[in-house]
Amino acid sequence: MRSKRSLAIAVGAMLLLCVVAVSNPGRRALARMASVMAPAPVTQTNQDVEQRAKARHGWGPGITSSVVRGSIIYYDPNGMPVRVAGVTIYRKHPDRLRVELDRAGEVETRGFDGAGAWKAGAETISEEEARDIRALLRVFPERLFVTRGAGARYREAGQRVDEDVVEETVPIAASPNGEQGRRRVKVTHQVEMEDELGPRGEQGRAGDRRLVYYSINPEDATVEAAQWLEPLDPRREVEDRSAVLIDSRVEFGDWRRVEGALLPFRIMHQWGGRVDYEIRVSEVLVNQEMPDTIFQNPNR
């Protein structure tokens, strides 16, 4: 008897649903119910860390060159500014560079033609000067996109945790004097790019091959810093276990959009943990016509 009553109730409920469904208000009510019960659509981008950063920076293959103008400030080991010069940097991706330094009207020009570094008016330059000129190609965040776009080896290297930087704070043990100490922690995603400049030398050795680690903000995918190791003796290779290696790090800030591309207008370079120069950008022009001749060694 009880089962028959349950069956009757179920049949009645089904009939009621059918009646409701055929009316317009009933259709709207069912549609609302279905929308609540149905899972929300999932947008799957499948982008890796570098691809998200490239989208954030508005970088694409259509950007082939740039001209950066501003000033460069050099610092002594104590962090005090010692000299200032006007600077204009011409770049033609992936590996052409020309730098003009204006010191009180005297212009010094140097560059990299894809094969070697040079300085105008000098038949030869030291290995240290050549290393520093090549490194200027790596002091821009878009170098990450350029090198990967050229087919360089890419790897995601997990997270990096920096203390005493900015933002988030976490408590630490009380200090000896009884005061509660705090430390600041910042977490970024790390990607590793194999960045090679210049032709290979004897036995296929690369003259300038560095593993550059880029720090990507996990929230907005901005490239915040680049870091790599340089041999203190530029004649040695990074892979040489007997070589003394120095940490070279670049931090980016003062972001601005230039024709859709997000670019830093403040670039700070550290050598061995100390700031040695800072570039303050006043203007960036993209996709300017520039002949290959401006990157060639004028001494030849």
Describe the structure.
There is one protein chain. The protein has 300 residues and is of the alpha+beta class. It folds into two domains: 2-37; 49-295, Lipoprotein localisation LolA/LolB/LppX (outer membrane lipoprotein receptor (LolB), chain A, Clam), CATH 2.50.20.10. Helix content is 20%, strand content 45%. Strands 1, 2, 3, 4, 5, 6, 7, 8, 9, 10, 11, 12 and 13 form a 13-stranded antiparallel β-sheet that branches. Helix 1 packs across helix 2. The longest helix has 21 residues, at 2-22. It is globular. The chain starts with a helix and ends in a 14-residue tail after the last strand.
Element layout with pairings:
Blueprint: H1 2-22, H2 24-37, H3 49-57, E1 65-75, E2 81-92, E3 96-103, E4 106-112, E5 117-119, H4 127-135, H5 143-149, E6 154-163, E7 169-174, E8 180-200, E9 206-216, E10 223-231, E11 245-258, E12 261-271, E13 274-286
